[in-house]
Amino acid sequence: MDKKLLDLYSDYLLSSFGATTATGLSSLLDGQISHDQVTRFLSQAEYTSKELWHQVKTVVRTIEREDGVLIFDDTIQEKPHTDENELICWHFDPSKNRSVKGLNLLNCIYQAGDVSVPVAYELVRKPIRFCDLQTRRVKRKSEVTKNQLLRQMLRTCQQNRLRYRYVLADSWFSAKENLLFIRQDLKKHVVVALKSNRTVALSPQDKAHGRFVRIDTLAWSDPTPVTAWIKGLPFPVLLHRRVFTNKDDSTGILYLACSDLDQHGDALEMIYQKRWKVEVFHKTLKSHAALAKSPTKRVRTQSNHVFMAIYAAFSLEAV
């Protein structure tokens, strides 16, 4: 990869207020680099999560600690006016409770101390087209689920010998298969949010006899976390409930599960609060790194632009 062009393009993304184009960068540099050079840079090779790791590895090695955390979350960048393809298509957006047209990006952020760095990412692709029998409309679907992508990214982090203790994620990624993989295969701990209808047993005897109850029906008079067994998991977890007040003065409840039985309620909340770093990263991508401002039409150049935006956001953090 041309490191000079990478740094120039990422700086261009951070300083741009409009559409980001090869012509725009060339013009900004008074023709010192032609727009054809930039176009080739964006289209000839395919830049992926593997290349991101090569770019951030040196910084990660200087900050990593045994108590580091890996934070997973996805975000959707709407692109309503771009032609549909396997990358830019319809994805369900939980924040809007409907499908939107755009790209769906799953990120893995490594945090140690006060520094957070993107170490892996995957774009959700939907190459399979099919006809919905009910609506008779052509739709798209992925070959793999986002939970499978998460486990794939975790395997890569393990191969890269990344030092960390906890994996943090919201309830979307608290599937049984993920928790089993993290705890039993990787020997790491999880701190994840759970949906209120998740069922647990409160003793080994209840678990053996199939006596599981919803977590929102438990008596939570004591703020001390409860030891419980999530249905489908062989190991116990600490369950913690946090009641909070929203900006509109409404009350919300967050249920947390932690596989590290040596923790306590306040510590669980402090660890899980680190998950907010991925939200900040997503805001940086969209507001400062021009994630949505590329008018490119081809899948490769679109995905490479995403790589450049992630690298630009990393550069901003690494300054």
Provide an overview of this structure.
The chain is an alpha+beta fold and about 325 residues long. The chain has a domain at about 170-275. Helices cover about 35% and strands about 25% of the residues. It has 10 helices and 13 strands. The strands form 2 sheets. Strands 1, 2, 3, 4, 7, 8, 9, 10, 11, 12 and 13 form an 11-stranded mixed beta sheet that branches. A two-stranded antiparallel ribbon has the order 5-6. Helix 1 crosses helix 10 and helix 5 (about 145-160) runs parallel beside helix 6 (about 175-185). The radius of gyration is 22 Å and the shape is globular. The model has no long low-confidence stretch (mean pLDDT about 95).
Major beta-sheet overview = 11 strands, mixed
Cα distance, first to last residue? 21 Å
Coarse morphology: globular
Query: How many strands in all?
Result: 13
Number of helices: 10
The share of residues in helices is 25-40%
β-strand amount? 25-35%
Whole-number mean pLDDT: 93
Elements, N to C (H/E):
HHHHEEEEEEHEHEEHEEEEHHH
> Low-confidence runs (pLDDT<50, min 5 residues)?
none
Structural class comes to alpha+beta
The quaternary structure here is single chain
What radius of gyration results from the CA coordinates?
22 Å
